[in-house]
Amino acid sequence: MRIKSALWIAVAGLMLSTASAQVVLGNGVGGVRAVNALAQISTAENPLEWSRRDFQDATNNETFGFWPAYTIQVGQSLYDWNGELVGLSPSSDPVTITTVESLRNRSQLPWPASFTIPQYLFRQGGVYTNRNNAGDHGVIGTAWIKYELDTSNPNGWNVRKIQVFAWDVRDLVHQSSPTKTRSFSDTAAPQRIDIYVASTDSNPSASPEGNPDWTFVGTLSKADGTLPNVCQWDPNTGNTFGEPPQATIDFISGNNPAGIAFHQDPTNEIWYSTLTVSGQSGVRYVALVIPEGNQYGADPDLNASSRTTTSLRYTNITDVRVIAGTAVEGDVNGDGCVDDADLLAVLFAFGSTGSGLPEDVNGDGVVDDADLLTVLFNFGSGC
Q1: Average pLDDT of each block of 10 consecutive residues along the chain (383 residues)?
Q2: Do the Cβ atoms of 86 and 38 come closer than 8 Å?
Q3: What per-residue confidence (pLDDT) applies to 13?
Q4: How far apart are CA 11 and CA 316, in angstroms?
Q5: Using alpha carbons only, what angle is made at residue 28 by residues 26 and 34, rounded to the nearest 5 degrees?
Q6: Buried b (16+ CB within 10 A) or exposed e, 215-240
Q7: 3-state secondary structure of 314
Q8: Residues with Cβ < 8 Å from 148, sequence gap 6 or more?
Q9: Whole-angstrom Cα distance, residue 362 to residue 346?
Q10: 3-state secondary structure 24-76
Q11: Which of 99, 160, 260, 367 is the least crowded, having the fewest Cβ atoms under 10 Å away?
Q12: Longest CA span, the chain
């Protein structure tokens, strides 16, 4: 009867969903904690160093560049754990994009002549990961960047999503030079990103890989489609810079599940590659590891190209965001969502006694009606 009575209240519990999520990296909060190596300011990079240089776009005269701080939208100068300047993080101020002719002249879903995007989607962070020798553009080694999340919660965050804007607006849609008429590939787009989280980072200068402080939570990759394919060899054009495939151009033009084009809503999360994370609470740091360099070097035909342009050395990232959910009462399995899995966990453990039982939501040493009711009244929270 107790269980039946509790289940009778499930409808009420379903109506009390209080999903709560917030940006804890980007949107004005967070910072760059460390990178594997920093170049000297305004100086050409050595292999595996993150750039600290600025350049100027020939069309709109806007600054673009490759400082580590350009990968997050905070809007202020940022310094790493060691006091090194990692850049003036970009703002949300509008930047005008002049659309390349090939997108303006599409027979279906044509683009406007110009539109605006926030500054943080125009600037990037870049690291020297690949060789640029004739016939050899392979990866030199692994690079990484660590971020510190919003410090307003000293206990850390229940991380739900890690999002990476992993393609270059200037390459795919912007007429960045007077002679450019069509999209070409983002030669510096990452081939793969491994993602780690940590509550403690006892050695900021150490790689997250194989580090006991850090937990691997997943991968974004061109190979499995979780990173966009923006650079491949096209035998029809013979472009040794590579080409974004037509499917990618169609996607950013509106042929996607949201039915929107990039120029209509450039900050929509559909343009980001998203890793959904579960069971990770108390997180204070997130790290991105780049083990395979850029998409240009990973393509066998482009890798064999005789082109030696210095831009082929780099792997760039445009924007990173981390979304967290608040701790949710009744979330037995710690995935940030009170759902069927939590309800079943309590039911299967019903009557169990002892200390430290995750199903003992109220911590009184027994899994009983009180724990079941807590799950039911919070059912749907955080989901």
Answers
A1: 38 39 92 98 98 95 95 96 97 96 96 98 97 95 98 90 96 92 82 97 98 97 96 88 92 96 97 92 96 96 91 95 81 76 90 78 85 89 72
A2: yes
A3: 38
A4: 48
A5: 55
A6: bebebbbbeeebbbbbbbbeeeeebe
A7: strand
A8: 30, 31, 32, 33, 284, 285
A9: 12
A10: EEECCECEEEEECCECCCCCCCCCCCECCCEEECCCCCCEEECCHHHHCCCCC
A11: 260
A12: 77
CB 188 within 8 A of CB 315: yes
For residue 237, give the DSSP letter. Answer: T
Reduced DSSP (H G I as helix, E B as strand, rest coil) percent helix, strand, coil of the chain, to 5 = 15, 25, 55
Domains and CATH numbers, the chain: 2-18+332-377 (1.10.1330), 21-325 (no CATH)
The Cα 166–Cα 317 span in angstroms is 5
Which residue, among 167, 173, 176, has the nearest Cα to 115 in the 3D structure? 173
At residue 327, the 3 state secondary structure works out as coil
User: If you search the block for the tokens 């999520």, which residue do you land on?
Assistant: 21
Look up tokens 């919070």; give the residue: 378
| 26 vs 17: CA distance, rounded Å | 26
Report whether 168 contacts 262 (CB < 8 A): no
Residue type, 2: R
Structure tokens at 91: 């703002």
Contact 16, 63 (CB under 8 A): no
Cα within 13 Å of Cα(326), Cβ side = 9
Query: Do the Cβ atoms of 144 and 288 come closer than 8 Å?
Result: yes
Q: How far is the C-alpha of 171 from the C-alpha of 295, rounded, in Å? A: 14
Please give the pLDDT value at position 17. Answer: 37
Global confidence as pTM: 0.83
Tokens representing residue 238 in the block: 């013979």
Cα–Cα distance measured from residue 383 to residue 381, given in angstroms and rounded to the nearest whole number: 6
**Whose structure tokens read 């204070």?**
284
Angle between helix 369-377 and helix 340-348 axes, rounded to 10 deg: 180
What is the Cα–Cα distance from 62 to 151, expressed in whole angstroms?
A: 31
> CA 189, CA 124: separation in Å to the nearest integer?
11
Under 8 Å CB-to-CB from 379, ≥6 apart: which residues?
10, 13, 14, 16, 17, 330, 338, 339, 343
Q: Which uninterrupted H or E stretch holds 381? A: none
Which residue do the tokens 């002679």 mark?
A: 179
